[in-house]
Design brief:
Blueprint: H1 3-133, H2 138-156
Helix pairs in contact: 1-2
Length: about 160
Amino acid sequence: ASKAAEGLCSWCRAMTYYHEASKIVKPKLEALRLAEARLADAQRDLDKAEAKLQLCQDVLDKLKADFEASMAQKKAIEEGALNTKKKMEQATALIDGLAGERQRWTEDSQKFEDTKKRMVGDVALGCAFVSYCGPFNQDFREYMVRSKFTRDLRDRA
């Protein structure tokens, strides 16, 4: 019934409530600390696993890039081989088509050789004809044809 006893009684009641509440809260706080420690361990394990995953992902990305580069190179090589094959087929067709021309070219070459051999004589004969038709008289022309040109041609043949 006194004011001093009322304050002391309030304090005692508060301490009782605190004690009762602390009996409930203290184990929960300890459980929280243990859970936070387990969470920190799990977080460290997760960070390690994520780092390992990132390394694996980097290796996978590098392998994918290498694979893509290799596939592009393979495609380029295949296209080059196909183009080369087409060119070879065209070259073979051209060679086969020109095989028949070889005989004609050989004959033309032989005719050209014959023409070259006769050219000197043909030119000499042409010159003789021009000289014969030229300003000289009949006696001089016969002398040149029979004595000079004919003998010279026989000597050179």
